[in-house]
Amino acid sequence: MDYSQRRKPYILGKILVAFILIVFCIITLKQSPTHRSSSTSAFSRHEPGVTHVLVTGGAGYIGSHATLRLLKDSYRVTIVDNLSRGNMGAVKVLQKQFPEPGRLQFIYADLGDAQAVKQIFAENAFDAVMHFAAVAYVGESTLEPLRYYHNITANTLIVLEAMAANNVKTLIYSSTCATYGEPEKMPITEKTPQHPINPYGKAKKMAEDIILDFSKKSDMAVMILRYFNVIGSDPEGRLGEAPRPELREHGRISGACFDAASGIISGLKVKGKDYPTTDGTCVRDYIDVTDLVDAHVKALAKAEPKKVGIYNVGTGKGRSVNEFVKACKKATGVDIKVEYLDRRPGDYAEVYSDPSKINRELNWTAQYTDLEKSLRIAWQWQKNHRNGYGQSLLTAS
Ligand SMILES: NC(=O)c1ccc[n+]([C@@H]2O[C@H](COP(=O)([O-])OP(=O)(O)OC[C@H]3O[C@@H](n4cnc5c(N)ncnc54)[C@H](O)[C@@H]3O)[C@@H](O)[C@H]2O)c1
Ligand SMILES: *[C@@H]1O[C@H](CO)[C@@H](O)[C@H](O)[C@H]1NC(C)=O
Ligand SMILES: *[C@@H]1O[C@H](CO)[C@@H](O)[C@H](O)[C@H]1NC(C)=O
Ligand SMILES: *[C@@H]1O[C@H](CO)[C@@H](O)[C@H](O)[C@H]1NC(C)=O
């Protein structure tokens, strides 16, 4: 091995990355609302036959997958995201897939900035909004409740006000099974009483309430989707889940599984094996992001003025943590070390959905019901993107 010969391209690579990052920043700044002169662009006019969807949080995990599907289905999309938790790399992938003018626009803005949001709505002709942008970790929400009420509840109000002021007709809202709290009866139907037990669930419930009260006095078409535990990624490997490293500690089970499989953490800590379930570990309903996004597109197609549709989006099948770990071991081919700890306060034994309403009314059914398959797809992306979207920047250049 001759190291001196390998050094140079490495440094050149670094310079190239730095250069690309600077170009990113310039493009981003140019596209920020104050720098745009979009009054004549395709995005600023309604066009018959074209539905222009504002995707808030489109640089995030679910929002980026939704954007990919919308673009594939010929929608026009504007992403608004402030990249606080999302990835510019995901937006880049989407822009590369759909480079034609008038297809995809990225606007860097904070939804908490009411003035900026007002301006975005005034300058763009949106037909619908899919509102994904939020902070979304139960544990973090108990530590920093104001962050949750601000970025979920208050920001939803800002988006709704801008929609009303500009007569945007349809809203698809990202809600969660956390709004139900700890129901006494399983499975959870849409009629199950909502008694959220953490700030995340409460902030989402409050946002739902604001939307519902508003919709009673407006023509808006509203769909509220309450997701269960989201996993998986694009089957074609273009997008994945890449949360900030500092959020790992609050992370979700699939992320922890992959981290364990790739040696970033030493193993999995399963909290509680004495729950009253089949194998003693917690039971959850895992919904693949591809199916979830399909539910959004169907909801958008079926949304009707003056009507509200509320739907659980889950498979209807509960899977134990042990089952999940087994599937993860198979999908990754790694014999992940598992350590059993005491129960974590606030975790409930069993949560799974009754998806019959969305089956019936939107003709939606989960297609990805094989945990191992969903995890294999997601693992493929994780393996190819060891540093999330940062790594793909290097390989793409
Ligand atoms: N992942 C799940 O299992 C799950 C389950 C139920 C509900 N949800 C909901 O789905 C939605 C999307 O979740 P996700 O997992 O994709 O999260 P994510 O963190 O990957 O994406 C959220 C995106 O919103 C952006 N954002 C946050 N605050 C913003 C602000 N003030 N201004 C502009 N952009 C902002 C972030 O930068 C990020 O790109 C959230 O509303 C979440 O509550 C997720
Ligand atoms: C995103 O918005 C928040 C306010 O909600 C702000 O505090 C934060 O600095 C912003 N992040 C970036 C990267 O601009
Ligand atoms: C959310 O709100 C808080 C204010 O409570 C802010 O400091 C933070 O940066 C906001 N944004 C995110 C993404 O957390
Ligand atoms: C429901 O969806 C299936 C495909 O998932 C399709 O074959 C069928 O025609 C749809 N039914 C209606 C009534 O749209």
Automatic annotation (TrEMBL):
<dbReference type="InterPro" id="IPR016040">
    <property type="entry name" value="NAD(P)-bd_dom"/>
</dbReference>
<keyword id="KW-0413">Isomerase</keyword>
<comment type="pathway">
    <text>Carbohydrate metabolism; galactose metabolism.</text>
</comment>
<keyword id="KW-0812">Transmembrane</keyword>
<dbReference type="GO" id="GO:0003978">
    <property type="term" value="F:UDP-glucose 4-epimerase activity"/>
</dbReference>
<comment type="similarity">
    <text>Belongs to the NAD(P)-dependent epimerase/dehydratase family.</text>
</comment>
<feature type="domain" description="NAD(P)-binding">
    <location>
        <begin position="54"/>
        <end position="369"/>
    </location>
</feature>
<protein>
    <recommendedName>
        <fullName>UDP-glucose 4-epimerase</fullName>
        <ecNumber>5.1.3.-</ecNumber>
    </recommendedName>
</protein>
<feature type="transmembrane region" description="Helical">
    <location>
        <begin position="12"/>
        <end position="29"/>
    </location>
</feature>
<dbReference type="Pfam" id="PF16363">
    <property type="entry name" value="GDP_Man_Dehyd"/>
</dbReference>
<dbReference type="InterPro" id="IPR005886">
    <property type="entry name" value="UDP_G4E"/>
</dbReference>
<keyword id="KW-0472">Membrane</keyword>
<keyword id="KW-1133">Transmembrane helix</keyword>
<keyword id="KW-0520">NAD</keyword>
<dbReference type="GO" id="GO:0006012">
    <property type="term" value="P:galactose metabolic process"/>
</dbReference>
<keyword id="KW-0119">Carbohydrate metabolism</keyword>
<dbReference type="InterPro" id="IPR036291">
    <property type="entry name" value="NAD(P)-bd_dom_sf"/>
</dbReference>
